[in-house]
Write a structure and sequence with these properties.
Blueprint lengths: L2 H20 L7 H13 L8 H16 L5 E6 L5 E5 L8 H18 L5
Antiparallel strand pairs: 1-2
Helix pairs in contact: 1-4, 2-3
Length: 118
């Protein structure tokens, strides 16, 4: 099976699992899944978040997802428990489709690590 086919199958499986758990029958999109990962990484799953906090949650998720690729490194948790990352290497310029594939791959790997999917 090609890497692209495997990623597509794993992504579809993951979207189905997460959509069944967190939405009312509609498939979650990439941004919604990134947001969920941010909430998971913060560890405050039953909180209400303001718009700027939601953006910060997505930033946390992106940093965590791209950490294994060498782009970010965890630094510390602040006094409110929010994780902070530093940039290790700037992301190369990517086209929108390439960004999407990178993020989907990183998300799939994140959930493989957590044994939600194989």
């Amino acid at each position: 099976m090609s890497r692209d086919t495997q990623l597509k199958e794993r992504w579809e499986q993951l979207v189905t699992i997460l959509s069944n758990q967190f939405s009312q029958g509609e498939d979650l999109d990439l941004d919604a899944i990134i947001y969920l990962i941010g909430v998971q990484e913060l560890g405050k799953v039953h909180s209400e978040y303001k718009k700027d906090e939601k953006l910060n949650l997505m930033h946390i998720a992106i940093c965590r997802l791209l950490e294994p690729y060498g782009f970010y490194e965890f630094e510390f948790f602040d006094e409110e428990g929010w994780p902070h990352y530093k940039v290790k290497e700037e992301l190369p310029p990517l086209k929108a489709g390439e960004q999407s594939v990178l993020m989907k791959e990183a998300i799939v790997n994140y959930f493989i690590e957590r044994e939600l999917i194989d």
